[in-house]
Amino acid sequence: MTTMYEHVGGESAIRRFAEHFHGTVLRDALLEPLFAHGSGHHVDHLTAFFVEMLGGSRGYSDKVGGFGALMLAHLGRNISDEQGERFVALMLAAADVTGLPADERFREALAANVRKAAGFSVKISRSDTPPYRPPYPELSPWQW
């Protein structure tokens, strides 16, 4: 079975998607405060995250830190529900603009998984104390 990573066209397509998305959040009044002072490596990390989540290499886990890094990146940021919803909307719009596949099967899977990931980030962001301790769970590639 083809992975979502193969379906989107690999890392170069995901990189374009991450770059476009990052640019939109920096221009968005609601989300810009969450991203403006973030890491200069956000596009690289976002690309690695999506490569891994869509079934490509484990670069996010192996080089960035996987679940633990994801959790700590959002801890204490106090992301509102409205910001979480905007994040999802801009990410799905980035998929349109950058030409990720538009077939129903892929888009439904992408939307469901992005919503789930955003919900995790919103929940984690409302605490200053990590809700998980090492050893952290492995990230699991998203399923169709």
Notes on the structure:
By secondary structure, this protein is mostly helical. It has one domain: Globin-like (Orthogonal Bundle). It is built from eight helices and no strands. Helix 2 packs across helix 4, helix 2 crosses helix 7 and helix 7 packs antiparallel against helix 8.
Short descriptors:
single chain; 144 residues; mainly alpha; Globin-like; 8 helices; 0% strand; globular
Please give a quick description of this structure.
By secondary structure, the protein is an all-alpha fold. 63% of the residues lie in helices and 0% in strands.
Q: What is the helical fraction, as a range of percent?
A: 55-70%
CATH architectural grouping:
Orthogonal Bundle
As an assembly, this protein is single chain
Summed over residues and divided by their number, the pLDDT gives a mean of 95
The largest sheet, given as strand count, sense and whether it forms a barrel, is: none
